[in-house]
Structures are given as structure tokens and as C-alpha cells.
Design brief:
The complex is a heterodimer of chains A (about 150) and B (about 325). With about 150 residues, chain A is an alpha/beta fold. Chain A is built from five helices and five strands. Chain A has a five-stranded parallel β-sheet with strand order 2-1-3-4-5, sandwiched between helices. In chain A, helix 2 packs across helix 3. Chain A is globular. The relative contact order of chain A is 0.20. A seven-stranded parallel β-sheet of chain B has the order 4-2-5-1-6-7-8, with helices on both faces. With about 325 residues, chain B is of the alpha/beta class. In chain B, about 50% of the residues lie in helices and about 15% in strands. In chain B, strand 6, helix 7 and strand 7 form a beta-alpha-beta unit. The chains are: A alpha/beta (about 150), B alpha/beta (about 325). The structure holds guanosine-5'-triphosphate and magnesium ion. Guanosine-5'-triphosphate binds next to helix 4 of chain B.
């Protein structure tokens, strides 16, 4: 018998915990670090997992840290493949209630594809940090209201 | 609020190896309330005698990198390893970047390793309570080694260190003044001292100095154990085996001398005290809020208001029956 309940009954943690990840070979993490700092300044708890992570490593970290959101920063062009694998793996581990968002140099034409895969938000270059913060807050609240474990 | 059934189901699932359930359980323990405090006793009752290792020392001395190296050696020996890393919260935004995990990510997918980051956000012993609660969980779930990383400053961090069986204090070459500063704090309580970054040329000087103060008995906890000084480089992977050997020797010493049991009981005493404080603080918070709501807001007389609230809150607390 599996216990499925909504999260808000069980979670008293007030702060939103976000995993900021870079998946694949892309060796630049300036963007990821800027985003991590901005989110910290907005009062988030940010877990940064560093460069060149595999999808498996990111999912494992998200589960151990019990984060509210996974944010993937991608500058390499394989964002669609990565999004697909990430969503798949989360489902495999029963952790697909954790919303995935993506940012970085993603072409506008790919936004709908990413969303159809299950990415909740896509932040194109130049998105104001305020907007990112607001959307993440909303996602975290929604998950706490409706998510399951 | 987490219901009893739900918390119990998380423990059961975690026992069967469900890491998602363990992650959720730790979130509940991160913010133990009067309502969930019972789970601590439940977990403590299932203790399997984990070896709690505190790793502390100078910021940036390589604690996280060193722990990552140690995990590899401990895994080779067949141990299951849990790590709790504690990162400071920014005083400006109360947010935090939890950066310790990044150095240990190579172990993320190892089913025998579980790494969890927490922040110092919870004031007034909150952090110590979270960390101690998590130690109980990992202990009950059969993790052989529970490693706790903290920066060696602040009262609650010293608390956490006192809950450890073995304390490893990490320093590095060229940290002369920092070493002096540490002397007043955690440097006094180490069982094992590590001079990390010994790939750097100034390392032997720091090592000689640490040996000297250790010999003189200026550092180390009281008792028959003589503090050990180890030279390591987490970058090159040097001295890691020696460090793990020293940690294992210390455990053997604790077992033979009976100190392992006395450390467990002092860890439990600390847990009971922090829990009692937490229960009182929760009540205090609730009652003070109620009293505050009754007073009239005004630009003047805020001190009088505060005194009034303090007095009525205090009186109420004294008359409360705590269940
Ligand atoms: N040269 C050298 N550098 C090292 C060694 N160990 C760690 N470092 C570097 O020192 C820096 C800090 O390493 P961490 O492992 O994060 O140190 P820490 O003590 O956990 O840091 P805080 O948690 O921030 O206090 C990193 O840039 C590491 O690459 C070492 O043995 N030699
Ligand atoms: Mg660290």
C-alpha cells in the first residue's frame, strides 16, 4: 500500500529549496553561479551541484536533498535530450512531482517542445530575476499543495 | 502537520531502502516541532551504534573535498556512509548557497552513501536540533559512519561537534592567524588534526607546529586519547588512508575505554535538552504572539508594550500545563 498525501500537511519548512544543475559537457558555470547567487539573495536555499553532472547524479541529489524545484542551466544545445532524460528518470524514481525548470541559451522555438516534455518553465536569456523568483515561488507553493511522495 | 502514520510509513520505507522516503523524513526532522518530537525517541530506540564523525576547521581548508576522499576509503571497507553538511545562512537575505555537496557529487548515485545539506537558518539551537535529529535517523537506518561537516564557529556548531564520537579538525598551510583564532574554539576539542593541502610548500611548517602543540597537550579533548596529527592532500589523494586509519583507531579506543557509550549518552542528553528548549520556545512564541495581538499598536510606548507582553507571557507560561 502506498501512502499518497499532499505535501503541505507534512511540510513545515518555510524556505524554498532549489537545486541548480548543469548537465553534460558544457564547461561554463558563470550563468549558473549568477543564478544561484540571485536566488540566495531572494531568500532561497540553493543547492549547487557543479559542472558536468549526469542526469542520474542530479536526480539522486534532488531526492537526497528533498528539493522543491530542479533548475537546469544549459548552454550547450542538447537541452531537449537532457530534459527528456531528466523527466524520465524522475518518473522512474517516483520523484516526478518535483518540477523542472530550464534556463540558458535556449532558442525560442524550443520552448513549446520543452514544455510538452514536462518542463514547467523555460527562462530565456534576459528574463528578469524578479520574474524567475516569482515563478519559482509559485511552483514550490503549488507542489507543496498538491505534490505527493 | 505530519501525521504519525505518515512519519512511520516514511521510516518503514526508508528502512526498505527507499531514498525518497528518507529525504522526506529528513525534511520533517529539519524542523522538529512539539508534534513530531516523538519520532526522535522512536528513532533513538532503533540505534545501531553508528560512528558519528565531526569534521570542522578553517573555512576553505578542504573539509568537503577531504570528506569526499574519505567516503571512497570507507566504502571500500564496506561501510555505509551518511553525510550532513551545514552551511551558513546569509545574514542579509536569510537565503543560502549549499556548496559542500558539490565536492562530494561523485558519490551521489552510490546506494551506500546519503548526503544531505542543511543551513544554519534556524536560530536558538534550531540547527543543533536538526543535525542531532538527522544523526538519530541515519543511525537507526543502519548507516555505519555519520559524518557532520561544519565551519568551526558559532555556538550551535560547537554543540554539534560535542555530539560527535570523533572530532576531526582541519587546518591548512599558511593559516597561521586562523590557527590562533581556532585555538580558542574547536581546536581545543579535536581528536584528530589534519593539515590538508600538504601539496603546498609551506605545509611541513604547519605540520611541525601542530605536532608541537599536540605534544605539549595544548590541544585535544581530555581523556587518555592522545591527539593525532595527519598530513593530507585531498587534491592529490595523499594521506587519506592514514586519516581513515586514525579515525578507526579512535573508534577502537572509544569502544575499549567505554567512552563510546558515554558519548552516546551525552549526545542523547544534549538532544533531550534541545528538545525541551524547542518545546518551550514554540510555546513562548505562540503565547507572545497572542499577547502581542491584544496590545494596541502605537508609535510611542513600544518599550512599555514589550515589558507588558514579557510579563503577561511569562506569567501565562508559568501557569501552563505542558502535556
Ligand atoms: N592545493 C589544494 N587545494 C585544495 C585541497 N583540498 C581542497 N582544496 C581546494 O580548496 C578549496 C576549498 O575546498 P573545500 O573542500 O570546499 O573546503 P571546505 O573547507 O569544505 O570549504 P568551506 O565548506 O567553504 O569552509 C577548493 O578550491 C578546493 O579545490 C588540497 O589538498 N590541496
Ligand atoms: Mg565545505
Amino acid at each position: 500500500m502506498s501512502m499518497e498525501r499532499t505535501l503541505n500537511h507534512h511540510t513545515t519548512r518555510r524556505k524554498v529549496k532549489v537545486l541548480v544543475a548543469k548537465i553534460g559537457l558544457d564547461g561554463h558555470d558563470r550563468g549558473a553561479k549568477v543564478i544561484a547567487r540571485a536566488l540566495r539573495d531572494a531568500g532561497f536555499e540553493v543547492v549547487y551541484t557543479g559542472l558536468r553532472q549526469t542526469v542520474e547524479q542530479v536526480v539522486a541529489a534532488a531526492i537526497q536533498e528533498d528539493v522543491d524545484i530542479i533548475g537546469v542551466n544549459q548552454h550547450e544545445g542538447s537541452h531537449i535530450y537532457i530534459a527528456r532524460k531528466l523527466v524520465e528518470k524522475l518518473r522512474e524514481y517516483g520523484a516526478d512531482d518535483i518540477p523542472v525548470v530550464m534556463g540558458g541559451s535556449i532558442p525560442v522555438v524550443d520552448v513549446d517542445v520543452l514544455k510538452s516534455i514536462g518542463v514547467k518553465e523555460v527562462f530565456l536569456p534576459g528574463t528578469p530575476i524578479r520574474e524567475i523568483v516569482d515563478k519559482l515561488m509559485k511552483l514550490a507553493e503549488e507542489r507543496r499543495r498538491t505534490g505527493r511522495v | 502537520m505530519a501525521t504519525k502514520d505518515y512519519v512511520l510509513s516514511l521510516v518503514e520505507r526508508a528502512e526498505r531502502g527507499d531514498r525518497r522516503a528518507l529525504g522526506r523524513l529528513l525534511t520533517i526532522l529539519e524542523d522538529v516541532s512539539s508534534e513530531t518530537a516523538w519520532v526522535l525517541e522512536y528513532l533513538a530506540g532503533r540505534s545501531r551504534g553508528a560512528h558519528v564523525i565531526g569534521v570542522t576547521g578553517i573555512p576553505g581548508s578542504g573539509k568537503s573535498s577531504l570528506i569526499s576522499r574519505m567516503i571512497r576509503v570507507l566504502r571500500d571497507k564496506g561501510y555505509r556512509v551518511a553525510v550532513i553538511t551545514i552551511d551558513p545562512t546569509s545574514p542579509l537575505s536569510s537565503g543560502a548557497i549549499l556548496g559542500d555537496r558539490l565536492r562530494m557529487q561523485e558519490h551521489a548515485t552510490d546506494p551506500g552513501v546519503f548526503i544531505r545539506s542543511v543551513t544554519t537558518a534556524g536560530a536558538l539551537g534550531g540547527l543543533s536540533l536538526s543535525a542531532l535529529a538527522m544523526i538519530e535517523a541515519f543511525d537507526a537506518l543502519g548507516y555505519d559512519k555519520v559524518i557532520v561537516e561544519t565551519v568551526g564557529v558559532g555556538q550551535s556548531e560547537t554543540h554539534v561537534m560535542h555530539a560527535a564520537d570523533t572530532i576531526v579538525v582541519v587546518t591548512m598551510p599558511g593559516a597561521g592567524d586562523d590557527v590562533q583564532a581556532l585555538k580558542a574554539g574547536v581546536l581545543e576539542i579535536g581528536d584528530i588534526y589534519v593539515v590538508n593541502k600538504s601539496d603546498k610548500p609551506e605545509a611541513s611548517k604547519t605540520y611541525e607546529y601542530m605536532l608541537f602543540v599536540a605534544e605539549k597537550g595544548e590541544i585535544g579533548r581530555s581523556g587518555a586519547w592522545k591527539p593525532v596529527v595527519v598530513k593530507t592532500s585531498s587534491t592529490l589523494g595523499m594521506g587519506i588512508r592514514e586519516l581513515v586509519e586514525a579515525v578507526e583507531k579512535h573508534l577502537e579506543y572509544l569502544r575499549n575505554s567505554g567512552e563510546k557509550l558515554s558519548r552516546l549518552s551525552s549526545r542523547r542528553r544534549l538532544l533531550v535538552k534541545l528538545l525541551a528548549e524547542k518545546i518551550v520556545l514554540d510555546l513562548l512564541d505562540k503565547v507572545a504572539e497572542e499577547e502581542l495581538a491584544k496590545t494596541h499598536e502605537g508609535l510611542e510606548g513600544f518599550y512599555k508594550r514589550a515589558i507588558e507582553i514579557a510579563r503577561t507571557t511569562g506569567e501565562k507560561l508559568l501557569n501552563l500545563k505542558i502535556q
